[in-house]
Design brief:
By secondary structure, the chain is an alpha+beta fold. It folds into three domains: 1-211, Beta-Lactamase (2-Layer Sandwich), CATH 3.30.450.20; 225-312, Orthogonal Bundle (Helix Hairpins), CATH 1.10.287; 320-470, Histidine kinase-like ATPase, C-terminal domain (Heat Shock Protein 90), CATH 3.30.565.10. It contains ten helices and twelve strands. It has helices spanning 10-52, 67-77, 112-117, 160-210, 225-275, 280-312, 324-341, 361-377, 432-442, 469-484, and strands at 85-89, 95-98, 122-128, 134-143, 149-158, 320-323, 345-349, 356-359, 384-392, 395-402, 446-452, 456-464. The strands form three sheets. It has a five-stranded antiparallel β-sheet with strand order 2-1-5-4-3. It has a five-stranded mixed β-sheet with strand order 7-9-10-12-11. The chain has a two-stranded antiparallel sheet with strand order 6-8. It is rod-shaped, with a radius of gyration of 52 Å. Mean pLDDT is 83; it is low at 1-7.
Length: 485
Amino acid sequence: MKLNMHFKSVAMRWFVEVFLIVLLVVTVLSVAISVFLRSLYVERVQTLAEEYAFEFRALEATNSDSFLDTAMQITNAFSHKDKMEVQILDADGKSIISTTGFEPKDSRPIEFKAALSAEDGLANFTGKAPSGESIVSQTQIVKNEYGTVIGGYRWIVSLAETYKRFRITVALIAALALVVLGLCAVSGIFFIGSILKPVREISSAARKIALGDFKTRIENERGDEIAELCDSINEMASELQHAEEIKNDFISSVSHELRTPLTAIRGWGETAKMSIGTDEELVSRGIDVVLSEADRLSGLVEELLDFSRMQSGRLTVNTQPIDVSMLLKSTYDMYTELASKQGIEISYTPPIQNSIVMGDPDRLKQVFINVIDNAVKYTEKGGLILVVQTREEGCVQIVIKDTGVGIPAEDVDHVKEKFFKSNKTVRGSGIGLAVADEIIKQHGGLLFVESTEGVGTTVTIVLPLYEPKEEAQEENQIETKEGES
């Protein structure tokens, strides 16, 4: 498996932050274990040597006259001559007898001086003998009852075999450490590789999506966090593809909406121009059409401007206390003739009492026009549109219900989204309801859409009623007096 080890790559970070730490930990542990085992091996040899030389402690109970004879007897009877050497020392520290049977060299033990200085007359040595051999030795000074040094004994054990076993152990530890590091490296390489491969695929897919290829999808069946990331990117691509389709539909729809009145204006303008002086009635009719289509074009442009303001957060409302009933009635009156021409019955149920809200009359009328206009557009000949206004619990509720074509169940939740059009065969930009919903929100109200395909659509607008401050204060005072009484 190939890994590109760039300085800032994931592989390099893993090598620096994980593998080097593991290497350091394994090395420190290996060294610590080796040092501990070396000390343990030497300590074990020393313990065994002390046990084997235990019988020489009898010399500590002798005097100047019996020291040498007792030493000879113990030396001759010593049963561990094959494991260690014991030397008998005179008062000057020179070896005079050895359990090896060879004449001892005329030299002092390395640790003899330390033994003389020690309170218990005992000293140990671990290291190189004058011959260069690794040994561990111990010297015990023997004194008489007056505290005078009469001699001593010293045991010596070669560490050559012990160090040989120790080196084998160290080699095993090193091999085990290399195996651990190897497993860590191999598993790390495979793990990093298993991450880098999908990450590269994700990066490649993200570049394609960034370049506009919203059909790109990432295949991943891992079931881990990377799979979740892949699913999120796939979902993002689907949303972008959907948004792109809606945007293209919007551009096509707006282009058509703009072209239609422009075509009518141009056609009737040319007709009226050619008819000047010959057919004044046709000229008048043409001018009426031009003005009507200009108003329609102006309304569409204004709708686009409102949408732009909404997107940038600059859509504002100038509120004042207004009677929403009058706005709704005037909007209803605007569509009675149009509905009648299309064979649609439109009915308005006025409220029992006026409903005052804090609102922007132009913006609220814009909302009512948008909703009623949609109802007329999507209702076929012989259909019915009901406009009902009621008051409930501190708010006014306006219901506009039609028996039109309705909206498919899967589209109902999206009709208030920008650019969305459920029925693309009917004129409209697809942003009117999104703007209307934003206007109602800025008035502290809510706009609901309920629809059943083939049955009709119901749009409900809820606005809070306006309560003058003086009336609210009087009500609070009345409640306070009632509480006091």
